[in-house]
Structure formats: structure tokens, C-alpha cells
Write a structure and sequence with these properties.
heterodimer; A: alpha+beta; 4 helices; 3 strands; globular; B: 885 residues; 24 strands; 53% helix
Chain lengths: 114, 885
């Protein structure tokens, strides 16, 4: 059973958030949502509310940390940033994701060729 | 380690829920505001911008709930919610809650009390280090097992054993402490030097005996109890190493046992738990006579050795002993190794287990009652459940809620049960049966608390299940529409089932109590062979050097008896070496045979050997079947005289005239003698009221001197009146002789009934509770069904049913499950009562009259419980009943 088109798998959402924070530095929830939308275009349909349980999960694991600060237009917002453990996790996950996609590409490419 | 960090974070978050909720709100609000601002910037109207933002964000509450579940422990969250809700809903119905908690407190409390006793007596090990390695070695005397061993047996065992770390023995005696202060009679334990080392209890002051302090010619040493140390020596440690006078000899005090130290030997082993002083044996076991059996042998097994292995070794040693000593060849000696703990509890175990079973049944009945209450409540709550289902509670959630309620209820019950159980335990201990006396520490401990709460939780889940499963049959639409109480057929069937099981369980308990009661009544009716009423007894010992010549002892007791019998109000006085049902001093018993018996018949039958002065039989109201009592003209120098009981007479000379016959007996200190029978008395029960253990042979005191004697006084005066006079008489003969153990004979008889009285009383209480609970249950079920059928009854009345008919209808329908319950109870009781047989006396476990009376009592009680609801049915006003709708 494939997930509905455009829905985000839990594991991938974690990786996306980590990568976003890696690329952008400290960012609040809204910022992360915007960035994800921006990068993925319409390919990914993110229910922005689901971002928060994911952020909490990552924080519980110690991969990201958060603190309160002021947003660009001076709103009180919570800013998330990557921790050392998070950076390591990102590297590990990126590597394994690459391995996986390489494998899938080879596999699917082979099917096509036959 | 990740899971640890996550659980910690989740757990911590539980404590700052409100703060974290505020943070989440702020964060989400900021997000929405930024989204809205962005949308306005793109040119939407503020209204549209807000809606678009909400859409993009997705389900707001859903996201928050997801977040909260991620944050805390959802299981615990729901649980706390359930508990809060349950507390609220129980608090709303205080009547229901009170009745349920009270019922459970009785059911669980009974179990708590009995479990405390079971745990302390049967499960907890004895208060000696590594007590599981302690074992008793019983010998045989003739054909009797569980007998003490002789010196050569102990010597052989201790020298040859490889599986026992050490073996020792004890022999209870009594002695007199004289010298400074009042003379005092002390219970004296003769022990092997290694005895305390085997038990593993060290003296609190001083030291153990040393090996050199045992045997002939060794220095005399003594270890005393903490009680004696305080009483006589002012708890002064400087007494250690000093000498005191014991039985006229100087002995050195070498140690004091710790407070509360008890020697825990089995009932009937003639080793009382508390002794005042201990001295080592002075005989050489290996060369002492093989036919003198008095040593109660205890050993400590080596680590890892099982009782079976030890038994095998002891069997081999017994064979060696048989080969070496002809005395032990025929009848062949056997030795038996038993674990100390198992042996100590062997008499009380069946009683405690039976009571435990009974308490379990009481609990089941209590459960059934509470389950019934919950069912009724579940019916009332159909609407509530339907509403909760309609707004999205899953079935699992509903069941969890109901189970939480019932477990909470039973936990409240458990708390009350601890209080109730504590009182019940006090009651149990107040009538402590003899065997439990040996266990000084019967008290509640953490394990009892754990037990109580585990029982409560299991029980709560059990009776909560019935109504919880009922939620399956919830017809939403109908339940919501139909706001009135409806009577479903299945609910009625469920309740009938409850009544049936309640009656069946109650019946079993009633029968158990009934059988015990009949046993007790039979025990009261037993004729012990003597009349204990108005007989006062006390003990006196002439163990000191002053009485070393037999004449001195004889003169003393003769004179004492004469003086006592001349006191005002005294009918007769007697002197005897051993009182019935007295287990504080060893019982003398040995082989006897009629003169001229073949060699083979000589070492087969044993009798208790007593020494007495004329007057004992009269004071005890014993019956002479033929011949006469001793009289004052019978003197030591003549032919030895004996009085035998009918058991001995029958065993030796069945059908013949016994008076004048000669009998071979063991006189006093293991000396063989021939005596002429001058009289036959009816057998007296000396050991238990129910078993005839041995016959008895009585010798004339001047011909069988003993140091420890008892005096019996038949008198209508009270103990308080007699006691000063007795003391005066004793002092006028010898001011140094203490009298002790002053007790009416009836107390001894009472103590022989104590275990049965204990079990009977507890069984009776349980039976009573069961009956009461069953009646309450029947009443509740019947009344509820009448109330539910108001409309139907109203219609019947309107159509002309006479009150008498309605009355009969309700009774008929309620008595049916009771009758079925009785049938089931009959079958169950037939199955279970055989387990009681070891506790019963004079009544069969399947005694038909007990069963019939039990059935009669229960059905009458059931009928009474139904009367009120039935009357209620006849008072239904049809108009009101119909308007009810």
C-alpha cells in the first residue's frame, strides 16, 4: 500500500526538518514550514500542524534544541537549531538515504531495461 | 540510551503540563499569525487570510492532541483521567460505594488475616539462620515412630554422618536454682554442647558451650535465658563466669541467650519452646544403655544436601546400629529425617489451609455481591454509556473505564481490609492454637500488604469484567431513545447466575462450619476418663541433693499429700508424675509385657509409665473396673505393685481376670522390674482427646521415685483461696521448694480442645459472614427485579391479579435460582469436604444430617431475604406503576 500522493512519511519528515535546519541555521516552526514548501514546490503537501509533534520528537531525541526568541516582525516565537548529535544523525541518515535511493535506482533502472 | 532520555522527558513533562500547554498555544498562535500576515501580504482580505491560514495549518486540536501524546505518556494520561472520573462517579453514589467497599473489606480482610497467619507459620522460615538446613531425626521405639533416640544412636549418627554438618540433641528437664534469693524451679534443657551452634543462635552475652563441657566429669557450665537473666540476675553481665547452685551443684554461668529466643520443636516432642536454663549432658553417649531413649535429635545438613539424601545415609547408619546392638534388631530400628519446619507445622497446616480456603470462598461471595451491584449500576448507566459511545469513546476505552472503576473500588476495599484484617488477626491470635504458640512473630509485614493489594486488583478486574462485557450488547439508538429502565432478559439471567453461585459457595462454607461445629461438640462430649471439674493442680520438684535419698522424697510427698487433704474444703489430694495434656515435661513410656510372654512379644507394646501415691484416682474421679487403688500400707520393700488401665489389660490378658497377674515394666530410670497388678482403671486420655495413644501403667511412688511430680486437689474452693494455704503447707515442710504451674485441670482439657475450638470459631464466623452476604445478595437481586418489573406487575394488578398471587409469583421465581444454587453447592461440598477430614472427629466429611441442616438454614435465609421484595410487589399501585412510563 503506497501512502497517498504527496503525504509525508514520518521518517522523511524528520530528515527534511534536520536538513532544513542544517541549511538555514536557527529557525521557527513557521519558517521551517515555509522553507519546506518553498523547496519542494507542490510535490510535497505538508499539513503544517503535524510539524510540531515531529519537532518535539526530534527534541526529545536530543537532535535539535529550542529556545524562545523574537521573529523578524518582533513576534515571540520558538527557534529550533541543530545539535551536535543532530548533525551526526543527519549525516548518518543522509548516507543511508543515498544508499537506499542508489539501490532503488539500480533496481528500477534494471526493470526498465528488461 | 535514547529511550531512557525520551521516557525521562515524557515523564518530566507530566509535571509541567500547564506550562507546556501554554507554550504550545503560543507557538501555534505565532505560526498562524505569521501565516495570516503572509496571506494578507499576498492580497487576501484579513478574514480570508485567517481562514486560509487555518486550512494550511490543518486540524488545530488534532495537531495539539498529537503533540500532547508525543509529549507525555498517553497511557498514564488516560489512566489518570479514568481514575479521576471513577472517583467522581463513585463519590456521586456514596451509598453504593459504601456497601461495595464494606463488602470487599470483609472479603479481602478475612484473607489478609488468614494469609498473615499462613505466611508467618507456613511460608516464613523459622527464626534460625539457614533454617531450611535444620532437620529432626526421629527414632523408633518398638513399632512406634517419632520416638526419641538413645545415646548409642546419637553417638553413631554424629560419628559416622557425612551429610550432616553436625548433630545434637536436647532433653527437657527441670531443676531448682538455690543459693542467693528465693529458690526457683527452672525449666532446664539438657543439651549437647553443640546444640546452639546447630541452631545458629549465639548467646547475647558470654559464649557457646565448649566441647569439653559435655560428658562425664566435665566442668559444669550453664547458659540461661534472657528472661531468667533479668528476673534473677538483674541483667548483670558480671554474672558470666560466676558460679550458681543448680540442683545442689555449683555450675558456672557461661552465657545468656538473646531475648525472644525459642526452641521450636514440633508439638508432642516434649520440648517446650521456652526454657530457663541449659546445661550439657554429662553421660557418655556411646557407652550409655541402648534402651534408654530420651534424646530429641536435631541436625544441620551440609549445603546442598537434600532430605532424601540424608534419609538414605541415615538408613545405612540405622542398619549399622541394628547390627551392633541386639536391642535394635527386633523390632528393627529405623530412623527418619524430617525437615524441622515441615515437622513443626504438620499439625496446624491442614487447619490453616482449610481456613485459607474458607477465606477464599468468603471473598468469592463478596465479589459476587459487588458484581451484582455493578451490574445494577451498569444498567442504570446505559444512557451514560450510549452518550459516551456516541461522542466517540471506543469500546476498549469504555471497558477500561469500567475496569478502572471496579479496581479502584476494590483498592478502597483493600485499604479498609487492612484495618479489618488487623482486627481479625488480633482475634485469631487471641485464641492462638497451641501449635502457633511456637511462632512468636505473627504480624503483618510488607508481603501481606502486597498480597492484599494483588488480591484486590485481581478481584476488581474479576467482578468488573461482568458489567464491562455487558457494554458489548449496547444498542445505541434504542438506548438513547429509551431513557427509561428496561429489563433485558440477559441481565436477568446474569443475575440469576450470580444468585446460584452465591448460594453454592455459601453452602460449602456453611457445611464446613457445620462439620467443624459437630466435631467440636463431639470433642466436648468426649469422656477423657477423668473428671476435671474442681481439680486444681500444681507442680513441685525435688531435684536437689536434699532429696537424694528415696526416703526423703517419699516422706516429703506423703506428708504433703496428707497435709493438703486435711485442708478445709479439700476432698482428696493426689500425687502423680505426669498430668494429662501436659507437654512441658517429657512423657515416660516404655515396653511392657505380661510375665511369661515369649521373647518375640516382649518388645512390641508400650505404655505410659506413671508414678503415684494413693488418692490420685479418687481426686481425678477415675473409674476402677476391678481391684483397688494403692493404699498407705503399700510400702517400698514389698513386691512392686501396679495399676493398669483397661487398654493394657486387654492387650495382655484379653478376657481374663487381671488382678494378681504379674507384669514386666520399666521402672523409673530405665530399670526393668516385675510388678503385680492390683487394680484396673478405665483408660484416661493423656495426649489428645481424640486418639488413644498408649495404655497406662501406674506404679507406687515409693517403688518408683521421680524428681518432678504434680499434685491434684479435688476441692470446691477457688484457686485464690487454696493457693496461699498450699504455699503455707509446702513451706512448712521445706521452705526452699517452689511450687509452679498452678492450673485448674479444666485448663489442661481446654488446651487439648484449643485447635478445634480455633478452627471451629473461625469457620463459624466465615459461615456466618457467607450466610449474611448471600442473604444481602439475594435480597438485592430480588428487590431489583421487582422494581424493574413495576410496569408488568402494575398491568397484572390492573387485570385483577390478587396480591397473594403476585407474592407467590415473586417467591417462586426467586427461589428457583436458590434451589439450583443449593444443588450446585451440594455437589461442590461433596467434592471439597473430604479435604477437611484430618480436622474432623466423630463426623464424616459427607455427613448427611449436616448437609440437610445446612440446606435448610440457607433456604430459610434465602426465603426471608425474598419476603420483603415479594411484599413490595403486592403493594404496587397500578396507576403509579403505569404512569412510571
Amino acid at each position: 500500500m503506497a501512502p497517498p500522493r504527496g503525504e509525508v512519511l514520518q521518517g522523511t519528515l524528520d530528515l527534511i526538518v534536520l536538513q532544513t535546519l542544517h541549511a538555514m541555521g536557527s529557525l521557527h516552526g513557521y519558517g521551517i514550514a515555509q522553507r519546506v514548501q518553498q523547496v519542494s514546490g507542490d510535490l510535497l503537501k505538508l499539513n503544517q500542524g503535524t510539524l510540531y509533534p515531529a519537532l518535539l520528537r526530534l527534541e526529545q531525541r536530543g537532535w535539535i534544541s529550542s529556545k524562545w526568541g523574537a521573529s523578524e516582525n518582533n513576534r515571540k516565537a520558538r527557534f529550533y537549531s541543530l545539535t551536535r548529535a543532530g548533525r551526526k544523525q543527519l549525516l548518518a541518515e543522509t548516507a543511508s538515504w543515498k544508499r537506499m535511493t542508489a539501490l532503488m535506482t539500480r533496481l528500477l533502472g534494471g526493470t526498465q531495461g528488461a | 540510551m535514547d529511550w531512557l532520555r525520551i521516557s525521562a522527558s515524557r515523564l518530566l513533562s507530566l509535571f509541567r503540563k500547564r506550562e507546556l500547554d501554554r507554550d504550545l498555544d503560543a507557538e501555534v498562535r505565532a505560526h498562524l499569525e505569521m501565516l495570516t500576515a503572509e496571506n494578507i501580504r499576498r492580497g487576501m482580505s484579513p478574514e480570508d487570510a485567517r481562514h486560509a491560514a487555518r486550512r494550511e495549518f490543518g486540524g488545530l486540536e488534532q495537531a495539539k492532541e498529537l503533540y500532547r501524546e508525543q509529549r507525555g505518556l498517553p497511557f498514564l494520561d488516560h489512566f489518570m483521567q479514568d481514575v479521576r472520573f471513577a472517583l467522581r462517579s463513585l463519590g456521586k453514589r456514596p451509598g453504593f460505594t459504601l456497601v461495595a467497599v464494606f463488602t470487599l473489606a470483609i472479603g479481602i480482610g478475612a484473607n489478609t488475616a488468614i494469609f498473615t497467619a499462613v505466611h508467618s507459620v507456613l511460608l516464613q522460615s523459622l527464626p534460625f539462620p539457614k533454617a531450611d538446613r535444620l532437620a529432626i531425626v526421629w527414632s523408633t521405639l518398638g513399632t512406634e515412630g517419632r520416638a526419641p533416640a538413645s545415646g548409642p544412636e546419637l553417638a553413631m549418627l554424629s560419628q559416622q554422618t557425612r551429610l550432616f554438618e553436625d548433630l545434637g540433641a536436647i532433653w527437657a528437664q527441670s531443676g531448682a536454682l538455690t543459693g542467693e534469693g528465693e529458690p526457683e524451679q527452672v525449666r532446664l534443657g539438657m543439651v549437647t554442647a553443640n546444640f546452639f551452634g546447630i541452631l545458629g543462635t549465639a548467646p547475647q552475652v558470654g559464649r557457646y558451650f565448649e566441647p569439653g563441657e559435655q560428658g562425664p566429669g566435665s566442668p559444669r557450665a550453664m547458659i540461661i535465658s534472657d528472661g531468667l537473666w533479668h528476673r534473677r540476675f538483674g541483667a548483670d553481665p558480671r554474672w558470666i563466669g560466676k558460679t550458681v547452685r543448680l540442683n545442689g551443684q555449683s555450675v558456672t554461668m557461661v552465657g545468656v541467650m538473646p531475648p525472644g529466643f525459642r526452641i521450636i520443636f514440633p508439638e508432642g516432642s516434649s520440648v517446650p519452646p521456652e526454657m530457663d536454663a541449659y546445661v550439657p549432658f554429662r553421660s557418655n553417649f556411646a557407652s550409655s544403655p541402648a534402651d534408654q531413649s530420651y534424646l530429641r535429635v536435631i541436625g544441620r545438613l551440609r549445603v546442598g544436601v537434600t532430605i532424601t539424601q540424608a534419609q538414605q545415609e541415615v538408613d545405612t547408619l540405622a542398619a549399622q546400629i541394628r547390627a551392633q546392638y541386639p536391642t535394635f534388631a527386633d523390632p528393627p530400628l529405623t530412623l527418619q529425617v524430617v525437615p524441622l519446619q515441615g515437622d513443626v507445622v504438620r499439625n496446624i497446616r491442614p487447619a490453616l489451609l482449610a481456613l485459607f480456603g474458607g477465606a477464599g470462598l468468603v471473598l468469592l461471595i463478596a465479589c459476587v455481591n459487588v458484581a451484582n451491584l455493578l451490574l445494577v449500576r451498569a444498567n442504570e448507566r446505559t444512557l451514560e454509556m450510549a452518550v459516551r459511545t456516541a461522542i466517540g469513546a471506543g469500546r476498549g476505552r469504555l471497558i477500561r473505564q469500567l475496569l478502572t472503576e471496579s479496581v479502584l473500588l476494590s483498592c478502597c476495599g483493600a485499604v479498609a481490609a487492612l484495618g479489618f484484617g488487623w482486627c481479625a488477626l488480633k482475634l485469631v491470635l487471641a485464641m492462638q492454637p497451641k501449635e502457633m504458640e511456637r511462632f512468636s512473630t505473627i504480624q503483618m509485614n510488607p508481603l501481606v500488604f502486597v498480597f492484599t493489594f494483588i488480591v484486590a486488583i485481581v478481584v476488581g478486574a474479576l467482578f468488573g469484567l461482568a458489567p464491562a462485557l455487558g457494554t458489548r450488547k449496547l444498542d445505541l439508538a434504542r438506548s438513547l431513545k429509551d431513557n427509561r429502565q428496561t429489563c433485558t432478559r440477559s441481565g436477568g439471567r446474569q443475575r440469576n447466575l450470580l444468585v446460584i453461585s452465591e448460594v453454592a459457595l455459601g453452602f460449602v462454607l456453611l457445611i464446613g462450619a457445620g462439620l467443624m461445629l459437630r466435631t467440636f461438640v463431639r470433642l466436648l462430649q468426649v469422656n477423657p476418663g477423668f473428671d476435671a471439674t474442681n481439680v486444681l493442680t500444681f507442680r513441685i520438684s525435688v531435684a536437689s541433693v536434699k532429696y537424694q535419698s528415696p526416703d526423703a522424697a517419699v516422706q516429703f510427698f506423703r506428708k504433703l499429700k496428707e497435709n493438703l487433704s486435711q485442708m478445709p474444703g479439700v476432698e482428696t489430694a493426689g500425687v502423680i508424675s505426669h498430668l494429662p495434656f501436659d507437654d512441658t515435661l517429657p512423657n515416660w513410656y516404655g515396653f511392657y509385657w505380661r510375665d511369661g510372654a515369649s521373647k518375640h512379644d516382649q518388645n512390641t507394646t508400650m505404655a505410659d509409665l506413671r508414678s503415684s501415691l494413693p488418692g490420685y484416682f479418687k481426686s481425678m474421679g477415675a473409674t476402677f473396673l476391678s481391684g483397688r487403688d494403692f493404699d498407705d500400707h503399700d510400702v517400698a520393700e514389698n513386691l512392686k505393685l501396679a495399676i493398669v488401665d483397661d487398654t493394657v489389660a486387654k492387650e495382655s490378658w484379653a478376657g481374663q481376670d487381671v488382678v494378681g497377674k504379674l507384669i514386666n515394666i520399666e521402672n523409673g530410670n530405665f530399670v526393668r522390674d516385675t510388678a503385680q497388678v492390683i487394680g484396673v482403671v478405665k483408660h484416661m486420655q493423656y495426649h489428645t482427646l481424640t486418639d488413644q495413644v498408649r495404655g497406662q501403667i501406674y506404679l507406687l511412688y515409693p517403688q518408683a521415685i521421680r524428681a518432678h511430680m504434680a499434685v491434684t486437689l479435688k476441692s470446691s474452693s477457688s484457686t485464690q483461696t487454696l493457693l496461699p494455704l498450699i504455699r503455707q503447707q509446702v513451706a512448712s515442710l521445706d521452705k526452699d521448694l517452689p511450687i509452679y504451674q498452678v492450673e485448674p485441670m479444666t485448663d489442661y482439657v481446654e488446651s487439648a480442645r484449643r485447635q478445634t475450638r480455633f478452627v471451629t470459631l473461625l469457620a463459624g464466623i466465615m459461615g456466618g459472614i457467607a450466610l449474611l452476604l448471600a442473604c444481602i445478595g439475594i435480597y438485592a437481586v430480588t428487590m431489583y427485579s421487582v422494581l424493574q418489573r413495576m410496569r408488568e406487575i402494575g398491568v397484572r394488578t390492573a387485570l385483577g391479579a390478587a396480591p397473594r398471587q403476585l407474592f407467590a409469583l415473586v417467591l417462586r421465581q426467586s427461589m428457583l435460582p436458590i434451589a439450583l444454587g443449593l444443588l450446585a453447592g451440594f455437589a461442590l461440598a461433596l467434592l471439597l469436604t473430604p479435604f477437611l477430614s484430618s480436622l474432623l472427629f466423630g463426623v464424616r466429611p459427607t455427613d448427611i444430617s449436616t448437609f440437610c441442616v445446612g440446606a435448610l438454614i440457607l433456604s430459610t435465609a434465602g426465603l426471608i431475604a425474598c419476603l420483603l421484595p415479594a411484599r413490595r410487589a403486592t403493594r404496587v399501585d397500578p396507576v403509579i406503576a403505569l404512569r412510571y412510563e
